[in-house]
Specification:
The protein is an alpha+beta fold and 129 residues long. The chain has a domain of 83 residues: hypothetical protein PF0899 fold (2-Layer Sandwich), CATH 3.30.2320. Helix content is 22%, strand content 33%. It contains two helices and seven strands, in the order αβαββββββ. The strands form two sheets. The protein has a four-stranded mixed sheet, with helices on one face. Strands 4-3-5 form a three-stranded antiparallel sheet, with no helix packed on it. The chain is elongated. The two termini are 17 Å apart. The mean pLDDT is 91. The structure holds zinc ion. Zinc ion (ZN) binds next to loops.
Length: 129
């Protein structure tokens, strides 16, 4: 996925979130994002794209903080979880079974938003998507 598309997607989510506070516009200071390591996203690239995109919007000055989520697979043969590696072809170390199930590592979602509304600061936990 491309960072630009991703940023557009993020901005849409933020717009949606903002509507929940209408008619006031929350002043966002930080957006915490969960990014799986299996999403092919370059965190620095995403932060740069974000900074450019929000510059002239209601989100100007909002910082994007990325928390990366390591890839975790589940072996469908023995039900154990493991950290897949490209070197091993993402096979499970227990049964050498090809990766079929991903437990985590593909997420790209807003974990929380730090913002203030008419001078009162709070933190909002975004629902999982
Ligand atoms: Zn196994």
């Amino acid at each position: 996925m491309h960072e630009v598309d991703m940023t557009r997607c993020l901005l849409l989510s933020m717009e949606e979130w903002k509507r929940g506070h209408a008619p006031a516009t929350p002043k966002v200071t930080t957006v915490h994002l969960l990014v799986g390591s299996f999403t092919c996203v370059e965190p620095e690239q995403l932060v740069t794209t974000w900074q450019v995109a929000v510059q002239s919007s209601w989100l100007a000055g909002a910082r994007l903080v990325i928390e990366s989520v390591p890839l975790l697979g589940r072996c469908v043969l023995c039900n154990g979880t493991y950290a897949p590696s490209a070197e091993q072809g993402y096979r499970s170390p227990c049964c050498k079974h090809p990766m079929e199930e991903i437990v985590q590592g593909r997420e790209l979602k807003i974990r929380s938003i730090d913002y203030s509304l008419s001078g009162q600061s709070s933190s909002h936990l975004a629902p999982c998507r």
